Structures are given as structure tokens and as C-alpha cells.
Amino acid sequence: MIAHAGGCHCGAVRFEVIAPADLVAYECNCSICNMGGFQHLIVKSENFSLLQGEEELACYQFNSGVAKHFFCSHCGVKSFYVPRSNPNGYSVNARCLQPDAIESLTLHPFDGENWEANAGKLHGLTE
Predict the structure, then answer these.
(1) Residues 6+ away with beta carbon under 8 Å from 29
(2) How far is it, in rounded angstroms, from Cα 26 to Cα 85?
(3) Which CATH architecture has domain 2-121?
(4) What is the Cα–Cα distance from 23 to 9, expressed in whole angstroms?
(5) Closest by Cα among 47, 94, 96 to 76
(6) pLDDT digits 0-9 by tens, 53-104
């Protein structure tokens, strides 16, 4: 496990996540992830640290209201959020991590378009 630095496009929001150098992330086809190109690296909350920019974040919630989609109020990038599938952790967009610490990135497809039938496949990733 190593520290990965990340943040939004303009640099107002910066965070660190503790994860392996060989990352495993999920590419979801639901409407919000598909439109935003989000690659989900799901981590325990204790492995995520917001370093700067809390006051720069806006939050978007829809449908059940469980997921909290945080985005930079300046550049609009959603670099992380609290996922409905693992509300005790964070989903970090692997695209928002600095590439220097990443040895490899394996992407698994996730059928979020059919959320109710597939959500169980993601439960427990932060336990």
C-alpha cells in the first residue's frame, strides 16, 4: 500500500489515497459515470484524506440521496465521492490520481445502468 496524490483540474481540491501501486478500478455505465468518465477506485474512509479544498467543494445528490457526489466549484471536476454501494468509504476517480505512483491500472466493467441487479457486486469493498 502506498500514497497516491490526486485532485481536481484547477488544483483547488487535493487529496491523498492509500492504495496498492497496482490499482483495480471499476468503469460504470450508469448515466452519471458514463457522462463523466469516472473510473472507480473504492477505498476505506481511513485510506482517504482530503488535504485541501473542502470549502471549494459542492455536493450533488440524486435518486436515493445516499451517494454524495463532490465536485470542485471552480473547475467542475468530480475527483471523488461517497458511493451508495459503500457509504462508509470513498470512490476516487483513478483519472484524477497523479500517474507517477501507479504501476498498473486494471479496469473492470460494472453494469450500473442496471444498478439494483448488480449493486451487490460492489458491497463490502471497504470492509
Answers:
(1) 109, 110, 111, 112, 113
(2) 12
(3) Beta Complex (2.170)
(4) 21
(5) 96
(6) 999 999 998 878 778 989 999 999 999 999 888 888 999 999 999 999 999 9
